[in-house]
Every structure is written in C-alpha cells, then in structure tokens.
Amino acid sequence: MTEPANSAHSSFARRPSARWWPFWLIVVVSSLAIFYVRVLREGPSIQHGNIATAVIVITVAVLLLLWLMFFSRLRWKTRWLTLSVAIGATGLLAALFEVHGVTGDLVPIIKPRWRHAASTATESGASLQSAGLDKQTLASAPVWPQFLGPFRNSTLPDGPKLALDWAKQPPQKLWRQPIGPAWSGFAVAGEHAITLEQRGTHEFVVCYALHTGQVLWSHTDVGRFANTVAGEGPRTTPAIVGDKVVTLGGTGILNCLDLATGKAIWSKNILIENERQVNIWGLAGSPLVLGDLIVVNPGGKNGRSLVAYRLANGERVWSGGDDSAGYSSPCAATLCGVPQVLIFNEHAVFAHDQATGRVLWEYPWNPAHAHVTQPIVLDGDRVLVSSGYGEGSQLLQVRRDGAGRFIVKQLWKTRKLKSKFNNMVVRDGFVYGLDDGTLACVDLATGALKWREGRYGHGQFILIRDVLLITAENGDVALVDPVPAGRRELTRFPAVSGKTWNPPALAGDLLLVRNDEEAACYRLPVVR
C-alpha cells in the first residue's frame, strides 16, 4: 500500500511557477518605446519628447503593478511584500525630496526637503549715502527702466563696449545674496534696483542699492501665486517712470509707488476690477507705461482684455479686446503710421489703438500652448512672432487697404526657431533666438536657418552693440559674437546657481541677474 504524499509537498507540487514573460515583455517594449521617442523620432519639440517619456514611464509602472498583483503567480506573501516595499520607498522619497518646479524642457527639478531657504533681507530704511555711495556715483548711474530695457526689446545699440575675454578680465562681483522667489527681473534708475519677490503669503516690491545690494525700501501686499510646475511668486518686471514705480504682482495687484520711499500712491487688483481669474501660470505681462498711461493685460471678455489706467491716480482710461491673456507683455509700436499696442494673447496677436484701446487687427495663433515670447516690431511695418512646443516663428507684414482697414499677411513661417521663453533679437538682417534651448540664427528675409548649435537652455538675451549677452538657464552668463557664419562663443562665467528664467538687466557696465533663489550684481569689464 502506497503511503499518502505529504499535503504540504502536494500543495507545492500543484503551485504553478511564476509567470515572468509579461514582466520582460513590458520591460523590453517600454525600452524600445523610450528609445524611439528619445532617439529615432524627430518630434515637434524637446518638451513633447519629455512628456511622451513621462507617459511611458507611468504606464510601465501601472502595468508592472498589475502584473505583480494579478498575473505574476508569485506567492501572495511575496506580492504584498514587494508592493509594501515599493510604496514605502516612494513615500520615503516623497518625504525626503520635493519637486521644485521643472526646467524649460519640463524635466522635474528634485531638491531635498531638509534644505533651509536662506533668509532674505528686509527693509533697512537706509539712505543712498549710508550705502556708501558718493554724489558722483549717483549722478552717473544709468538706467534700465522696464522689462527688456529702455526700448523693451533686449537691445542696447549704444551700450558699453564690453571686453570679450573674461578669463583675462573677469567680471567683478559687487554683491550676491539670497532673494525671495519670483520670475521678475530688475528695473534700474540711478541707484535704485527694483524687483518683485514672494515671502510667505506676501508679495514684496524691494528696492536694492545697485552697487551694494543693501535694501533701501520695500512694499508689501497680501497675495501669493504658486504652482508646482511654474514655481512661486510674481512673474513681471517693474517699470520706472520719473519719480514713480509701477509693479504688477502674480495675482493681479497693480501698484504705483513713490520711487524714493516705496510708499503707495495708489493700488488696485486688475483681475478683480475686470472680472477675471488668475491664469494657470500666473499673471506675467509686465506693465507698459505710455506717457501718462499704464497698459496691462488682465485678459477676458466684455472689452477688458487690454486695459489702460491713468498713471497719476489709477483711473481707467480705456479698455478693449475679448481674448484671454497669454504670458507675453504689451509693447508699443507704430505700424502703417498708427501708434499701437501689441499683445500676444491666448488665441492671437492683437494690435490696439494707443489712444482708445480699440482692436485694429489680429492674427490668429495656435492656442494649444502658452505664448510667452515678445513679438518683435521691425522696420517696413513687419512683426516677428514666435512660440515653443513645436509651433515656430512667423514674419508678418502689416498693411492698410484703400478703406483704411488693416491687413496682415504671413511672409514666411519656420519651425527651425521655436522660442518658448526667450526674447529674440535681430542684428544685421538675422534673427537670434533659443530654439528649444539651443542657440539658432535665422535669415530675416527668408526664414531660412543659418545655424543651430550651443545649448543654453531656456535663458534670455541682451544685444549690446555688436555682442550678444546670454544668461543661460543654469545661471551662466556668456558672450556670443552674433554672426550668420556660425556660433562663436567668446567667453562665459557662472553668475548664479539654479534655474534662471528671469530677464537680466544691464545698467551701464553693471549686470543684474537673478532667479527664484538668489540675485547678484557684477561689473562687466569694458574697453576704455
């Protein structure tokens, strides 16, 4: 008589072996998919490739989880243990690290949670003289009065003649210090260097002494814009006109302040007044001062897309348009002999009459992604427009017909220059911009690409005489010889650390750079 088999051994014999082939199939197919997306496929933009990669990774994680729990045939003890370890590891990483926004290419920036944000300076009540500045220094201090400089186009045709070898003549650091988060730039008049910052639940307008970094005054408002992807704080640059400073916060607070003291002359919330809400990425249109008017773009319906307020008292003078706001700033132009204000909104480029706010013409643009780059107004009644995420650039010709109506015609279109954040410049018939973060040169006459090389990320420009100053996304500052023959980087140095999307400012030979964590001022060497 045969002895009965041990029940435990019988159970073991009946247990099917682990099913590993779905695991390897998922790994192999996903690896091939990532290789295709990252290497073989020429997608419309780097951002699309990164988004596709993220989708693949998330999909793989879900499929592997399903395989583990329902199709692996592993012991249930092993399944639950593996799942518990995965959840525990994920929770531990989330507890130790945080996503500090993304790069311009949509790659998450991971930073440890235990790092302590450096404290920022508060109002000192210092005078310019107590900051150690003599009358001669103050009298000779130049200006950078608004977003993108005196002409609102990142161009200084009569700027300083810079020395071109920073290894032999390095820039002199005047100061470098922590600053509250924001994507604001500096506006400079005399010794006043003014920017916006976020500190807790308050937006700050802070005036620093240009040469020392000492806080001269600050103004605060209750308000905070924050977005995990887009970052925290205001995203506009102040405008200085005469004895006044005009600022616009990330949640719509428009201030007119006294330049000397920072005291409020008047204040209002343009979103509340115009029945709008904060955009997904915050209010980003830097205020434009035209004579006695302040022009801002709250966006929206009922003729309130673009609004002009009286500089002296905040009275609304005119409004016009019915499109939602983009993330570009209003700029002044004269086209076909008519003074206009151009604004790159969500669905189109609009031109408003400077005197009445009436829409004169519009040119439709793909609304699928944010519009950030400033349109460039060129001679011959032409306008150059660009956006990222695969869209590209177009050169527009503006004309008037016999009845006086404005007609806009496309002269050329190219996907070889897709400017996401960067504000492009034009020199000697060629356009220079960052195409998905790589420096590119395009022939203005035809739209043909001359060259594309040199990775700077999503940084910003200043064209100073005949040299291009680039603040790279990683915080480096470089000088490039802008010529159509090819990229010629002349010199560079590390100015600040971390993601630097903020526009730089150049006041004489003093370069102000900042990001969402620190700011610095350097004296650039010049040729005497």
Description:
The chain has 528 residues and is of the alpha+beta class. It folds into two domains: 7-97, no CATH class; 135-523, YVTN repeat-like/Quinoprotein amine dehydrogenase (Methylamine Dehydrogenase, Chain H), CATH 2.130.10.10. Helix content is 16%, strand content 38%. The strands form ten sheets. The protein has a five-stranded antiparallel β-sheet with strand order 3-6-7-8-9, with no helix packed on it. It has a five-stranded mixed β-sheet with strand order 4-32-33-34-35, with no helix packed on it. The protein has a four-stranded antiparallel β-sheet with strand order 5-38-37-36, with no helix packed on it. Strand 16 (288-290) and strand 17 (293-296) form a beta hairpin. The longest helix is centred in the N-terminal third of the chain and has 26 residues, at 46-71. It is globular. The N and C termini lie far apart (111 Å). Residues 135-140 have low confidence and may be disordered.
Indicate the topology.
Elements: H1 7-14, H2 21-40, H3 46-71, H4 76-96, E1 97-102, E2 108-112, H5 135-140, E3 143-144, E4 155-156, E5 172-178, E6 187-189, E7 192-199, E8 202-209, E9 215-222, E10 226-227, E11 231-232, E12 239-241, E13 244-248, E14 253-258, E15 264-269, H6 270-273, E16 288-290, E17 293-296, E18 306-310, E19 316-320, E20 331-335, E21 338-344, E22 348-353, E23 359-364, E24 376-378, E25 382-387, E26 392-400, E27 406-414, E28 425-427, E29 430-435, E30 438-443, E31 449-455, E32 460-464, E33 467-471, E34 476-480, E35 489-494, E36 505-507, E37 510-514, E38 518-523
Parallel strand pairs: 4-32
Antiparallel strand pairs: 1-2, 3-6, 5-38, 6-7, 7-8, 8-9, 10-11, 12-13, 13-14, 14-15, 16-17, 17-18, 18-19, 20-21, 21-22, 22-23, 24-25, 25-26, 26-27, 28-29, 29-30, 30-31, 32-33, 33-34, 34-35, 36-37, 37-38
Helix pairs in contact: 2-3
